[in-house]
Amino acid sequence: MDRREFIVGLTAGIGMPTLAWAKTELSSQISLGELQVMTLSDGHLTLPRSMLFAGLDPAAVDRILQRSKVAQGPIHPPINVTLLRHADRVVLFDTGSGPGFQSTAGQLVTALDAAGVGPEEVTHVVFTHCHPDHLWGVLDDFDDPLFPNAEYMMGQVEWDYWFDPNTASTISGDRASMAVGARRRLEVMEERLSRFGDGQEILPGVAAHASYGHTPGHMSFELRDGGQSLLILGDAIGNHHVSFSEPEWHIGTDQDAETAAKTRRRLLDMLAHDQMQVIGYHFPKGGIGRVLKAKSGYRFAPRGEG
């Protein structure tokens, strides 16, 4: 028995409650012509409000969060990984957090299993950006590639920034470990990773859409078949409450907060006008829905709700 067989056997013996939980979290799926799209739960994060909303008026933030029925204390954003099935392709957009980030995350393998997909069946992994909850799940418990047959894809600007060995020493201090972790994973993927630019059709029906600010090269992705379309946002709009109500307010997790705010405003205007469906990586109820104009700002309407 090799080490991977051992760990699979071990988790099979103790993992039934987790599997049942994951099935309940497979909460959104949609068809766009021949494109079959599903969101898979990697669990959730636990983040202090001070990390997300530093510099903002706490009372104003609280009013928005209360309207959105967000409980007091830390924020617990869900993690929605997108799975696309099209022709002979099985595509993941981001890979969740993996085993080494937060104990409430790293559930993607269980969610894939509940969806009937083995890691070896994934043909392509497309990254929005290199933050831990989007990239670190690409390696397994033994730091081997979790998706052994996949081609990896990432925007050129994002790759250049995180692969640069100087990034860890020039990024703000609390992000240095993220830069080290990102480069280590990029090194593992380097020989099987292709890069692309803004506007490029990277796969049939999948186009890259530059949405810089959260990270220097953050990408969103438009899925389209005929007249039906959907935008995978990644963290270009990182929450469904404050950033919808006040898109120009700076968010603490954005690396370039000013650029990120401009990107948010542009995307929200476009999405509300065009009524394009979206998937938000940290949005509730599986993340699929639409952007609606509100009296002040915008609001997120999960699929099936007005």
Topology (SSEs and partners):
Layout (H helix, E strand, L loop, with lengths): L2 H12 L1 H10 L2 E5 L2 E10 L4 H5 L4 H10 L10 E9 L2 E5 L14 H7 L9 E3 L5 H4 L15 E5 H8 L3 H4 L5 H14 L3 E4 L4 E3 L2 E5 L8 E7 L2 E7 L7 H4 L11 H18 L2 E4 L7 E6 L4 E5 L4
Parallel strand pairs: 4-5, 5-6, 6-7, 11-12
Antiparallel strand pairs: 1-2, 2-3, 3-4, 8-9, 9-10, 10-11, 12-13, 13-14
Strands, total number: 14
Largest sheet, described in full? 7 strands, mixed
Distance between the termini: 53 Å
What order do the helices and strands follow?
A: HHEEHHEEHEHEHHHEEEEEHHEEE
Describe this structure in words.
By secondary structure, the chain is α/β, with parallel strands linked by helices. It is 31% helix and 25% strand. The strands form two sheets. Strands 1-2-3-4-5-6-7 form a seven-stranded mixed sheet. The chain has a seven-stranded mixed sheet with strand order 8-9-10-11-12-13-14. Helix 2 crosses helix 5 (108-114). The radius of gyration is 18 Å and the shape is globular. The protein starts with a helix and ends with a strand. Residues 1-26 have low confidence and may be disordered.
Key terms:
31% helix, globular, seven-stranded mixed sheet, single chain, 14 strands, disordered N terminus, 306 residues, alpha/beta
Provide a quick synopsis of the model.
With 306 residues, this protein is of the alpha/beta class. The chain contains eleven helices and 14 strands. A hairpin with a 7-residue loop joins strand 12 and strand 13.
